[in-house]
Amino acid sequence: MTDPLDVIFRGHEFRSCLHEGLSGTLDIPLFEILRTREFGAIITKDTGQVGRNDDERRALHERGIHWIGVKEPSARGLQLVTAWVASITAAMPHILEKVEQADCQPSWFGVKGITHQSAQRMDSGELWRPRWGARPAA
Fold this sequence. Notes:
By secondary structure, the chain is mostly helical. The chain contains seven helices and three strands; from the N terminus they run αααβααβαβα. It has one domain.
């Protein structure tokens, strides 16, 4: 799901664990690998990670890596993908503004989810108004 971020935020590179061949790597060793590969941040769906695990939080700080947790939407399929991408895309300008400050220390960012039910995201209706009379064939 990094492709949309690469397209929108052209001055930055987004890679996945799959792209990097790191799927299944334990977190603390993963952070060290990310540091050696000069990654500045990690984006994860494990939204409670830095709140509950001081060892991982310290490891991120010591390696100078920002942590970005994105709440996984309670949707499936295409709705899951679009809600996740919308959430991180909407938050990323604010995150980048913060991390690009000269005095920014390694930080955590909890990205709030975006609603995915159609009634929460949009309204819709027919263009034809009943007061216009009989509807012509489309």
